[in-house]
């Protein structure tokens, strides 16, 4: 069983921990560099990007995550705010720290305020190129929008012509909140194809 960390500095990390367990991974709360050293992958959940970026730097997690990812010993999945932090560019906010692991530009809260939250059934393509896909009920809450995608980025799901789930290398990023459903298949997908773990087969 692979150890899957969930960044627990702020945001809805508890629901991701439950989804990781349901998907067959070993969930670990990550707050320190020592916690990070214990995991094979890290999920960065929703939250407030400015606050979390500051906390990452305060605890040295910005450098530790970058080092682990660039040496190939850590897979990453950023959801909502997490997508913002793993992107190359945050439109209109050049001073917010971001990792730049995904060659994309994102716009914060571009899908509207919380009162305009919505759900949409999306086909998600598997990353291994075998042509398979599954349908997933995606929940969008104050979601960032991907406005630009680099050549090395794979689009795995789209909504209204815009990518909402993308990957590059061992990094997966999505605009929506898979942890707000009872469906753990996106987490299984991450474990199986980005972490190389033993998630339960559907």
Structural notes for this entry:
With 202 residues, the protein is of the alpha/beta class. It has a single domain (3-195), classed as Class I glutamine amidotransferase (GATase) domain (Rossmann fold, 3-Layer(aba) Sandwich). It has helices at 13-22, 33-36, 49-58, 61-70, 81-86, 185-195, and strands spanning 3-7, 26-30, 41-44, 75-79, 87-90, 102-107, 118-125, 133-140, 145-149, 154-159, 162-168, 171-174. The strands form 3 sheets. Strands 2-1-3-4-12-11-10 form a 7-stranded mixed beta sheet. The protein is globular.
Distance between the termini: 17 Å
Specify the helix fraction band: 25-40%
CATH H-level superfamily:
Class I glutamine amidotransferase (GATase) domain
Could you name the ranges where pLDDT drops below 50 across 5 or more consecutive residues? 197-202
Overall 3D form: globular
N-to-C order of helices and strands: EHEHEHHEHEEEEEEEEH
Furnish the topology, listing elements before pairings.
Elements: E1 3-7, H1 13-22, E2 26-30, H2 33-36, E3 41-44, H3 49-58, H4 61-70, E4 75-79, H5 81-86, E5 87-90, E6 102-107, E7 118-125, E8 133-140, E9 145-149, E10 154-159, E11 162-168, E12 171-174, H6 185-195
Parallel strand pairs: 1-2, 1-3, 3-4, 4-12, 5-6
Antiparallel strand pairs: 6-9, 7-8, 10-11, 11-12
């Amino acid at each position: 069983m692979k150890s899957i960390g969930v960044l627990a500095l702020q945001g809805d990390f508890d629901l991701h921990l439950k989804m990781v367990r349901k998907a067959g991974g070993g969930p670990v709360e990550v707050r320190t560099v020592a916690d990070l050293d214990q995991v094979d992958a890290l999920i960065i959940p929703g939250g407030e990007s400015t606050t979390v970026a500051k906390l990452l730097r305060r605890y040295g997690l910005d450098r530790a995550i970058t080092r682990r990812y660039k040496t190939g010993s850590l897979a990453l999945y950023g959801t909502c705010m997490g997508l913002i932090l793993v992107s190359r560019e945050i439109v209109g906010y050049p001073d917010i720290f971001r990792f730049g692991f995904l060659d994309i530009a994102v716009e914060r809260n571009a899908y509207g305020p919380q009162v305009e939250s919505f759900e949409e059934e999306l086909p998600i393509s598997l990353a291994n190129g075998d042509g398979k896909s599954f349908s997933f009920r995606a929940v969008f809450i104050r979601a960032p929008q991907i406005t630009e995608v680099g050549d090395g980025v794979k689009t795995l799901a789209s909504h209204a012509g815009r990518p909402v789930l993308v990957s590059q290398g061992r990094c997966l990023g999505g605009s929506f909140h898979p942890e707000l459903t009872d469906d753990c298949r996106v987490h299984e997908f991450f474990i199986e194809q980005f972490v190389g773990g033993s998630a339960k087969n559907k």
